[in-house]
Amino acid sequence: MNAEVTRDAPIWVLIVDDEEVAVRNLTYALGKEGYHIVGVHSGSAALAALEERHFDVVLTDLRMEKIDGLQVLQRTRELHPETPVIVITGYATVSSAVDAMKAGAFHYVAKPFRLDEVRLVVRDAVELGRLRHENRRLRALVDSYQGGGTLLTRNPAVEKLLETARQVAATDCNIFITGESGTGKELLARYIHAQSPRRDKPFIAINCGAFAEELLANELFGHVKGAYTGANTDRRGLIEAASGGTLFLDEVTEMSSAMQAKLLRVVQEKELLRIGSTTPATVDVRYLAATNRDLRAAVDAGVLRSDLYYRLNVVNLDLPPLHERREDIALLAQYFLKKYALAMQRPAAEIAAPALTALQAYAFPGNVRELENAIERGLALAGDGVLGLAQLPDEMRGTAVPARATTAAQLPTLETQEADYIRWVLGQTQGNRTQAAQILGIDRVSLWRKLKKYAIAE
């Protein structure tokens, strides 16, 4: 039984042909693949079957009396718009092929056909149906997400981390959030604040690595009038402004040791001195700190003071990089697509299947931030609102072919290069032949022939 079929729920295929022998042969061939088959011998019987249940794939003869294959195709699209329809006919004319494809057929197969060819086309149709269903489910999940300051995820590790975040949010302990750049540390900090008793008070964020020491001191502690040239009025710092709420200190390890000592005193004593003042101000702040460094290594190297580390790191929440939560790539891509489609006034925007496959195969060294940038850029370049493979950055399209020897004696033949490239594309698409054919710019049958020609394992 085909492994691609059995990994999910049973796959139901409707076969429609007024020739009984054709239905029998296709039923036998596809039944061996593990599909559940319903075979009928007329268009009217097909319409009745479509009313009774959902089919994952429909194969229909084009020329039939009374109700023909195009009518079956049209009704399938009305009842089950995600179901791919393969049109089969013994009258292989250009006009009928064009009519079928314009009406939304997944593929067009002319009689006489090889059963291996039909099996390959059906297998690709099943995969397309899965992709359509998954995209619809992801869109529904994105639609249900109200942007409540949380991380959008289906990854078990991140879901567990969010559960821990909800638990500690109810307390008033300080938290250190770690993770690579672009993983969403500030978003997690905002989520903790939103879940805490301080939710109705200010949430203030500052990137400690973005300021020189004197400017950072002024931003955090404020100043009094006359503290320095140009200080014409008293000014509260961000710590005072966050009193009663939460202060998020991003990249806190980029502070100098002297600044860390000043911050430590405020955290411990819950009071501060504005620059130029001798009167302390009481503050009530919950501190959330973040860094993309390894915390213990930062302490050992003297980059982070150990006393400040223990004050801020009551609880440590470590966000995994995007390449460790690949099930979130499609979900986040759909979310960003909706976000930027609304901003660009493109309500019908979508991600083409090859583009989504390429995104899921990419390593994302820039994490979620890189994915968001790619979706925004791609949608801006997609004139028709469909973000395709061509709109992705080169590195995400996987256009680089593995390096080979370049000496004259070792130069490969053109056929060897083609075979290697096909294997590489199949690897990038995780064996998905539909997406591989689209990336290669050929149809599925041509790809099938090349697989046979080069003895590339299916």
Question: Please, could you describe this protein's structure?
Answer:
The protein is of the alpha/beta class and 458 residues long. The chain has 4 domains: 3-144, Rossmann fold (3-Layer(aba) Sandwich); 156-319, P-loop containing nucleotide triphosphate hydrolases (Rossmann fold), CATH 3.40.50.300; 323-397, Helicase, Ruva Protein, domain 3 (Orthogonal Bundle); 408-453, Orthogonal Bundle (Arc Repressor Mutant, subunit A). The chain has helices at 3-6, 20-31, 43-52, 69-79, 94-102, 115-144, 156-169, 185-195, 213-221, 238-241, 257-269, 295-300, 306-312, 327-343, 353-361, 367-381, 394-397, 414-428, 433-440, 444-453; strands spanning 12-16, 36-40, 57-61, 85-89, 107-110, 175-178, 203-207, 222-223, 235-236, 246-250, 271-272, 281-282, 286-291, 315-318, 350-351, 386-387. The strands form 5 sheets. It has a 5-stranded parallel sheet with strand order 2-1-3-4-5, with helices on both faces. A 5-stranded parallel sheet has the order 7-10-13-6-14. It has a two-stranded antiparallel sheet with strand order 8-9. Strand 11 and strand 12 form a beta hairpin. Helix 6 packs across helix 14 (327-343). The longest helix is centred in the N-terminal third of the chain and has 30 residues, at 115-144.
